[in-house]
């Protein structure tokens, strides 16, 4: 009975597509209505801060409400808030402060829904007799595919329909996601509510579990550093490379797109063969290849087609990382703690990302682009070592 599992993937694809539409539509909407780059940047800040807050503190609420109900409520609020933006704008009732408040609420509501859908996965996969490795890879593959489709789709729809209509389409995707989750069996994914346990006590219990589990704590630490590095590479170093070395802004998009395309292919490959691979070795090699080669070749100034090929291969290696992390979480976190622990790990993974851009910019100003690329390469290599040498990582197998 794989229908509930497929419905979960479809609901998440709709929600992620809606998120990508919102990521592109809102900045364009603010630029159209205000003409200010500074106000657009402030709107972006209002959309990123609540993600960290909701991931850190919303997981406990998801555990208490149940995965099924949390996902539906999250998508319903997100959809209605997004729909309110063009409707208020049409009636001249949308001030800029109100827009910031709506953006904050939209992202605050959306993140727990993502956590809830991820937490549903083990039970629905078991119901459909899908091995957890393949289920985690399928979930990540659908996520990556929806993100890849959502961004160019948003650009096309802005041209065809305009930002007001695009935001309406965006809101509808969340409502459809909530409707799909509403058809799922409630026993398929909901953790038991927290009973008489208070919110703060529940939050502490999730953090305490993560602190005691050295393997997951180590994996979270690796992701924190790599997300920081990836942000610096994507938002600063690739742009500088495209301007100063390749001399063509299209090089920026091609390198970033090659990593994304490779990651989607790698996720599909892991879904097909992941259950036959040793997890620790696969994770360590994937982590090493995902970061080091694609940055090193830019520092070595290889021909651009070679850099694109290496970016594609690095992305392919990265495709195995998230599914293995998902399996690790599902194997080790009790269902009653699942959402709050996953939420804490997600918040930590996002928290250091803004530092990456600052670090990349500062290093480039001080030492030049090549030195910054080599420095990032070295940190990528160092952060890839724990799976090969850490004793706790033996438990991954």
From TrEMBL:
One Pfam family cited in the UniProt record for this chain: MFS_1
Protein's name according to its UniProt entry: Multidrug efflux pump Tap
Cited PANTHER family: ENTEROBACTIN EXPORTER ENTS, INTEGRAL MEMBRANE EFFLUX PROTEIN-RELATED
Cellular compartments annotated: Cell inner membrane
Signal peptide region: none
Domain Major facilitator superfamily (MFS) profile: residue ranges: 216-397
Coiled coil segments of this chain: none
Keywords attached to this entry: Cell membrane, Membrane, Transmembrane, Transmembrane helix, Transport
UniProt similarity note: Belongs to the major facilitator superfamily. Drug:H(+) antiporter-3 (DHA3) (TC 2.A.1.21) family.
């Amino acid at each position: 009975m794989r229908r509930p599992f497929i419905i979960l993937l479809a609901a998440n694809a709709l929600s992620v597509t809606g998120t990508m539409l919102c990521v592109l539509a809102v900045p364009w909407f603010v630029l159209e209505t205000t003409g200010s780059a500074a106000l657009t940047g402030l709107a972006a800040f209002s959309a990123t801060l609540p993600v960290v807050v909701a991931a850190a503190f919303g997981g406990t609420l998801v555990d208490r409400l149940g995965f099924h109900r949390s996902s539906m409520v999250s998508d319903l609020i997100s959809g209605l808030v997004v729909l309110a933006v063009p409707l208020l704008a049409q009636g001249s009732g949308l001030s800029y402060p109100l827009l910031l408040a709506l953006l904050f609420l939209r992202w605050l509501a959306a993140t727990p829904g993502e956590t809830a859908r991820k937490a549903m996965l083990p039970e629905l996969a078991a119901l459909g007799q899908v091995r957890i490795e393949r289920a985690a890879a399928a979930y990540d593959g659908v996520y990556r595919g929806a993100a890849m489709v959502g961004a160019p789709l948003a650009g096309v729809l802005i041209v065809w329909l305009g930002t007001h209509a695009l935001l309406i389409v965006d809101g509808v995707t969340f409502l459809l996601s909530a409707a799909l989750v509403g058809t799922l069996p409630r026993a398929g994914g909901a953790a038991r509510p927290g009973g008489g346990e208070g919110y703060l006590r529940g939050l502490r219990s999730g953090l305490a579990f993560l602190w005691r589990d050295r393997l997951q704590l180590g994996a979270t630490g690796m992701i924190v550093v790599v997300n920081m590095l990836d942000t610096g590479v994507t938002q600063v170093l690739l742009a500088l490379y495209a301007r100063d070395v390749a001399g063509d802004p299209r090089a920026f998009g091609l390198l970033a797109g090659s990593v994304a395309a490779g990651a989607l292919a790698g996720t599909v490959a892991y879904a097909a063969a992941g259950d036959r691979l040793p997890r620790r070795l696969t994770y360590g090699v994937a982590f090493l290849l995902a970061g080091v080669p694609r940055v090193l070749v830019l520092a070595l100034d290889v021909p651009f087609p070679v850099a694109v090929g290496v970016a594609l291969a690095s992305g392919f290696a990265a495709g195995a990382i998230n599914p293995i992390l998902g399996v690790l979480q599902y194997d080790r976190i009790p269902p009653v703690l699942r959402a709050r622990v996953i939420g804490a790990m997600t918040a930590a993974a996002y928290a250091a990302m803004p530092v990456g851009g600052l670090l990349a910019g500062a290093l480039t100003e001080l030492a030049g682009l090549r030195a910054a690329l080599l420095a990032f390469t070295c940190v990528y290599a160092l952060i890839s070592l724990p799976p090969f040498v850490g004793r706790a990582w033996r438990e991954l197998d």
